Amino acid sequence: MPRIGAFGEVMMRLQVPGYETLSQSSRLNYSFSGSGVNVAAALGRFGHECSLISTLPDSSVGEAALAYLRKLGIHTAYINRGGRYVGMYFLENGFGVRPGKVTYTDRLGSSFNTAALQSYNYAAIAEKIDVIHFCGITLAMNDIVRKQMKQLAADVKANGGTVVFDFNYRPSLWGENGYAKARSHYEEMLQLADIVMMNEKDPLFILGMRTEESDRVAQLKQLIPQVVQQYGIRIAAGTHRQINADNTHSLTGYLYKEDVFEFSDKLNFSVYDRIGTGDAFTSGIVHGELKGYSPQQTVRFAAAAAMLAHTVAGDTPDATEMEIFQVMRDSIGDVER
């Protein structure tokens, strides 16, 4: 069984109940999440051995986070203890024309983001990891974290492992002139990556590519093959989302492998909690590849996993492989062909 690792920050999610705003509510519900947490937990539910590589404070909050990760089935042997804080964010659910809102605390002061460059034994970890996941949110943090990320990716790659990189660009984290700041770092990660999660906006805005096409699918079909060829990527995948007038969402997944595009059906569904659903899609792509699914089955599985993740509370997907296949069979009436 492939051993899967995810490098990233553990964050405390503080959620306003229901559809209230922070200014209205006097209550918050907390849990722990993060892109790496979500991917590791989802793949663990599919039966894989998954570990998180991170740093948590040696405090009661750090202990609570560790207990939460273990409950999700994530191995914690590669989690260091040090620093003082866990990164936090406040979540307000959107409704109708009012969008959801995420407000971060000072993430740069967290234990993960203040860990020294040599906090991790990169070579030793790389020897025990077959697949490693990284996220663009982590890439946005600071130069030391970026160096940690690139070193670990390079060591896993050198050992014959698979590197998964999710673009996941967040303008609020890169600040002014963010695309220009981010470009060289994204290019370095692309040189190391085997599986990349992205859509047409990423090569347009981050990599500075150009297209005369105006339709999103046409842009995707023109730009993604260029990225794959230029950086030697094995697989590219991602989603297109549409928010409908009745507050439902529509989602279509794509996968590009061996010069061929495969698309999922367009899935329509109601949304209970949107945060973390991209990580569910990523997990579905990785799982399909590891299990040897066909590209068409892989992208359909990933899209169904993402759809199902919209129906549960919290960032972290918790569906099993069987549950996702059940949704794929039962959702035929909700598919636009």
Number of helices: 13
CATH topology of the domain at 1-115: UDP-N-acetylmuramoyl-L-alanine:D-glutamate ligase
| CATH hierarchy, class of the domain at 1-115 | Alpha Beta
What can be said about the biggest beta sheet? 11 strands, mixed
What is the structural class?
alpha/beta
Estimated helix fraction: 25-40%
Please name the CATH architecture of the domain at 1-115: 3-Layer(aba) Sandwich
**Rg over CA atoms:** 19 Å
How much beta, percentage-wise? 15-25%
- According to CATH, the homologous superfamily of the domain at 1-115 is Ribokinase
Mean of all residue-level pLDDT scores: 92
Order of helices and strands: EEEHEHEEEHHEHHEHHEHHEEEEHHHE
> What global shape is seen?
globular
Low-confidence stretches: none
Distance between the termini: 36 Å
Number of extended strands: 15
How would you concisely characterize the structure shown here?
With 337 residues, the chain is an alpha/beta fold. It has helices at residues 35-45, 60-71, 111-114, 122-127, 136-139, 143-158, 171-174, 178-192, 201-205, 216-231, 277-291, 295-309, 321-330, and strands at residues 3-7, 11-15, 29-33, 49-56, 79-81, 87-92, 101-104, 131-135, 162-166, 195-197, 235-243, 249-257, 260-263, 266-269, 335-336.
